[in-house]
Amino acid sequence: MEKRRVVVTGLGAITPIGNSVDEFWSSVKAGTVGIDEITKFDVTDFPVKLAAEVKGFVAKEHMEFKAAKRMSPFSQYAVCAAKEAIEDAGLDFEKEDMFRVGVSIGSGVGGMCDVENEHKKLLDRGPTKVNPLFVPMMISNMAAGNVSIQFGIKGKSINIVTACSTGTHSIGEAFRSIQCGDLDVCLAGGTESSITPLAVAGFNSLTALNQETDKTKASIPFDKKRNGFVMGEGAGVVVLEELEHAKKRGANILAELVGYGATSDAYHITSPAEDGEGAAKAMTLAMEEGGLRPEDIDYINAHGTSTHHNDLFETRAIKKALGDAAYQVKINSTKSMIGHLLGAAGGVEFIACVKAITDGYVHATVGTTEPDEECDLDYTLGSGVEMPVDAVLTNSLGFGGHNATLALKKYVED
């Protein structure tokens, strides 16, 4: 069966450096760091003091107050990002067969804040005081569910959960659904809001988080002094559309999604494979499907978490996948500014890739000054670069050994 072509027609974002795509991208180009002291809870007894929180977000400004109260923050972020993406795409749902429109939005953690709050109620006040909406607020599929309900979307609605690769897998599976004819349009991406006492304590106990107190040195991917990631939150949602469907309605096509690679390391619950084989294969699969050679790739948005193992092993993976061409490609990590958005990371970073194509700009890996000896590729240090960007890869690697890569190209009319 011939695969249908898939294009990107809309973008929506809630991030630590802006609550719209325009705000986010302006902040990215300015090198703004969205990491600061944690305000969501008292960190007096916590060794971790910093996170990348969403700022100035008021849910009732984006949706009905009653609807907002029935949603956990991760669902609120998803609905708001989806709304922006729909508007950006110029979609008129009154003209669509809503069974041909779908949702593929995942969350790695779901409503962690709800779990903590309601567990405290259970212990302090007894089982009858637990919120009747606790379960439908907490479960991770409710981001996709609420987006479907809010906008009347009746096609396939799915929730991919693959930890830190959730957003990228979600976009990849939406891509597949359109390619094979299940859908014509899909809202896809990831969302997360897990800056909570239990989550921060848990990741810290795992020695995954940086305990740095200087926000400019906390998330420094590929740097010699990197020492753990910084927790972030937000949502990135995009509109994917079958090419002919987009052309028929006169949509503004931002980029073409041409390849998707997904593999497993089968190695360790938290560490990527040391030789980078699994991540390299995901990149190779995405390039092969997109008809791209290593030398065609202009830019890679790396997973780049600022942990020792990830950055080293991902560098090895890029070299394995691209060979000598790895030294010619621009690489960066958006996490240097927004921290690690966990399940939302892939969605927001995909948006950065689309903007790189449309604006001809590759942002800097902010804060990184002295790469590790084996991290010897071009990580776009110092400042961003204006350059033609025609072909891009974006990587996500998740606990459990999940690897996902998407390949995008500048859209060229036939």
Any overview of this molecule?
- There is one protein chain.
- It is built from 13 helices and 14 strands.
- The radius of gyration is 20 Å and the shape is globular.
- It has helices spanning 21-30, 65-69, 73-89, 112-125, 134-138, 142-151, 166-179, 197-205, 243-248, 277-289, 308-322, 335-338, 345-359, and strands spanning 6-14, 36-37, 50-51, 101-106, 157-158, 185-192, 234-242, 255-264, 299-301, 330-332, 361-362, 385-386, 391-398, 402-409.
- The mean pLDDT is 97.
- The two termini are 21 Å apart.
The order of strands across the largest sheet is 5-4-6-7-1-8-14-13-9-10
Which structural category fits the helices and strands?
Answer: alpha/beta
Beta-strand share of residues: 15-25%
Number of DSSP helical runs? 13
CA-atom Rg in angstroms: 20 Å
Q: How far apart, in Å, are the first and last alpha carbons?
A: 21 Å
How are the SSEs ordered, and which strands pair?
Elements (H helix, E strand, L loop, with lengths): L5 E9 L6 H10 L5 E2 L12 E2 L13 H5 L3 H17 L11 E6 L5 H14 L8 H5 L3 H10 L5 E2 L7 H14 L5 E8 L4 H9 L28 E9 H6 L6 E10 L12 H13 L9 E3 L6 H15 L7 E3 L2 H4 L6 H15 L1 E2 L22 E2 L4 E8 L3 E8 L5
Parallel strand pairs: 4-5, 4-6, 9-10, 9-13
Antiparallel strand pairs: 1-7, 1-8, 2-3, 6-7, 8-14, 11-12, 13-14
Helix pairs in contact: 3-6, 7-13, 10-11
